[in-house]
Write a structure and sequence with these properties.
Layout lengths: L7 E5 L6 H14 L7 E5 L5 H7 L6 E4 L16 H7 L3 E4 L2 H7 L3 H13 L3 E6 L3 H5 L3 H12 L5 H4 L3 E4 L13 H19 L1 H6 L1 E5 L4 H8 L6 E4 L6 H12 L5
Parallel strand pairs: 1-2, 1-8, 2-3, 3-4, 4-5, 5-6, 6-7, 7-8
Helix pairs in contact: 1-2, 1-12, 5-7, 7-9, 11-12
The chain binds 2-phosphoglycolic acid.
The site of 2-phosphoglycolic acid (PGA) has 13 residues, from strand 8.
Length: 259
């Protein structure tokens, strides 16, 4: 197991921040990014702010991502955005299958699969979200749900393509609720995912795979989560909307590899 992978800390701003607000948040994070060079930082603003955020982080190692993508390159698809457009705007990453997309906008494992392929065609790194509802957890169906989502959306990828994606385990009951998964709950699912990857793609792939945790990550709980063997970083919502809390999470994340 590669214990010295660079932790990834991605901030999903969701439908927050105007262009002006996004520019100033990105600039503030950029001004202090050198402190957390040992983490890969990814800012994921709304579509309208991508170009400005990209400009604001110029000269740093901060990466920019988008919150969704469509699977066609162009055409009559009102309201959608193509991988080509995101790439040109400065994105290197794209979140696919976030539970809010699944819950409110009809995203399915099949649309996730198509979007992942489209992103990869344009060298965008997909951050694919999976996770169970509270009801599924209470019924003991968590692992079954995770394995079914993986089978249908990403385990159809070739080994070459699979190594280009990032996974994010986000229990739906923990998103925006201030109720994060305990480190043990997160590790149980992360190590389960790693075992499934090993079965499907082999040992090397599974040790390289990046599996993020998301759901009420805060500075105060991030070290206990990142300390778990199979947690490689975070997808942060609410706490990524302020520079100080986002950077504090990144500082906790880099402690994983210290001594
Ligand atoms: P949260 O959101 O950190 O506000 O819980 C996480 C996410 O939706 O990715």
């Amino acid at each position: 197991m590669d214990s010295l992978k660079k932790p990834v800390v991605a901030g999903n701003w969701k439908m927050h921040k105007t262009i002006t607000e996004a520019r100033s948040l990105a600039a503030e994070i950029a001004s202090k990014a050198a402190e957390v060079r040992e983490a890969t930082l990814i800012l994921i603003p709304p579509f309208t702010a991508i170009c400005e955020v990209k400009k604001a982080v110029e000269g740093t190692e901060i990466k920019v991502g988008a919150q969704d993508v469509f699977w066609e390159d162009q055409g009559a698809f009102t309201g959608e955005i193509s991988p080509l457009q995101l790439k040109e705007a400065g994105c290197e990453f794209v979140v696919i299958g976030h539970s809010e997309r699944r819950q409110y906008f009809g995203e399915t494992d099949e649309t996730v699969r198509k979007k992942v392929l489209a992103a990869l065609r344009h060298n965008l790194t997909p951050i694919v979200c999976i996770g169970e509802t509270l009801e599924e957890r209470e019924k003991g169906q968590t692992l079954e749900k995770i394995s079914s989502q993986l089978e249908k959306s990403v385990f159809t990828l070739s080994p070459q393509d699979f190594q280009k994606i990032i996974l994010a385990y986000e229990p739906i009951w923990a998103i925006g609720t201030s109720r994060n998964a305990t480190p043990e709950q997160a590790e149980e699912v992360h190590s389960f995912i790693r075992n499934l990857i090993a079965e499907r793609y082999g040992k090397t792939q599974t040790s390289c795979a990046i599996i993020l945790y998301g759901g009420s990550v805060k500075p105060a709980n991030s070290f206990s989560l990142i300390r778990e063997k199979d947690v490689d970083g975070f997808l942060v919502g609410g706490a990524s909307l302020e520079a100080e809390s986002f950077l504090a999470i990144a500082r906790e994340a880099v402690r994983k590899n210290e001594g």
